[in-house]
Design a protein that fits this description.
Blueprint lengths: L2 H30 L5 H23 L1 H5 L3 H28 L2 H8 L2 H12 L6 H18 L9 H24 L5 H19 L13 E3 L8 E3 H23 L5 H7 L2 H13 L6 H18 L3
Antiparallel strand pairs: 1-2
Helix pairs in contact: 1-10, 1-12, 2-4, 2-9, 2-10, 4-8, 4-9, 5-8, 6-8, 6-11, 7-13, 8-11, 9-10
């Protein structure tokens, strides 16, 4: 496939994943309104994704999935626990102590860490446009969360968010390496397998609140008069909020470097703000709109760097 077409395919895959993740943020907020805790929701997300992917692989390509060495299995275990489970748990811990916007801003320092790793650890050339694109994107995110509005930062919350940042950067780098050896579907399946095992140890399934999926919950915001069963929202979260976007990100790493994938993934907080405005009736100021445009400018700048 020509280079330009590969890049375009990679960028489109990451952009679609960012939008799906953004919508999933609002869907998750609706589910959490039913009383289910954030760690439990993360457990449902990982376990549901693993089960669906395993069934798909069992039908389509069981031999390819089982063909794995002990060394590769250890690597995939690190990918699942550090790259998937850890990002979620430390992000949830961070937003218990920080505003969600601030936690996201800190977490999206991850593309900068990836670029620094590529330049100084792997001694790969990182063009000036990439550094400029990172600057634009981070500045735009700062405008979107309006960091100057008297924010009292909790030290432990910042620590959790920084750990989530490192885990997110590790996810991008580990996934980039994993897809050089096997397909994106089996990489995602193994990742969710070990994330599922991690959550099962942290909070055993027998303590799960069984009545929670059967509840009806208001869709909040502009749709507050409508209700949906929690299990239906969970199904959406597992399929379109987890399996599809994670597969898109991992698959995009076959066409685009981890540094650029991380930059394009910054569409997520922009899209999440727009979704929250349209669904949850959250405010969207002129400064936030400008910030979103600055993020988009950074992404376009990154794409122009050949």
């Amino acid at each position: 496939m020509p280079t330009d077409r590969r890049l375009l395919r990679g960028y489109l895959m990451v952009s679609a994943a960012a939008i799906l993740f953004a919508v999933n943020g609002t869907v998750s907020k609706v589910i959490l309104a039913s009383g289910l805790s954030s760690p439990r929701l993360a457990q449902v997300r990982s376990t549901g994704a693993f089960v669906v992917l395993l069934l798909a692989i069992a039908v389509l390509r069981p031999r390819r999935f089982l063909r794995v060495t002990r060394r590769e299995l250890a690597f995939l275990a690190v990918f699942g626990v550090v790259g998937l489970a850890s990002v979620q748990v430390f992000y949830f811990l961070a937003i218990h102590r920080l505003a969600i916007g601030i936690a996201l801003l800190i977490q999206y320092l991850a593309p900068l860490l990836v670029a620094l790793w590529a330049r100084f650890a792997m001694h790969e050339p990182v063009r000036r446009r990439i550094w400029g694109a990172l600057g634009f994107a981070l500045a735009g995110l700062a405008l979107m969360v309006q960091v100057w509005r008297g924010i009292a930062l909790d030290g432990l919350g910042v620590t959790y968010a920084l750990i989530a940042t490192v885990a997110f950067a590790a996810y991008l780098l580990l996934a980039e390496r994993a897809v050089s050896r096997r397909d994106a579907v089996s990489v995602s399946c193994y990742g969710f397998l070990f994330a599922t095992l991690f959550w099962a140890v942290v909070q055993p399934w027998w303590s799960f609140p069984r009545a929670a999926p059967g509840r009806d919950v208001s869709l909040l915001g502009h749709f507050a008069g409508l209700h949906a069963p929690v299990w239906a929202l969970m199904t959406w979260m597992v399929l379109l909020g987890t399996i599809v976007p994670f597969w898109l990100v991992v698959g995009a790493l076959r066409h685009v470097s981890a540094t650029r994938v991380g930059i394009v993934a910054m569409l997520e907080p922009v899209a999440a703000t727009i979704v929250a405005y349209g669904w949850l009736a959250e405010s969207l100021s002129a400064v936030q709109i400008i910030g979103g445009l600055v993020v988009l400018a950074g992404i376009l700048l990154a794409q122009s760097a050949r």
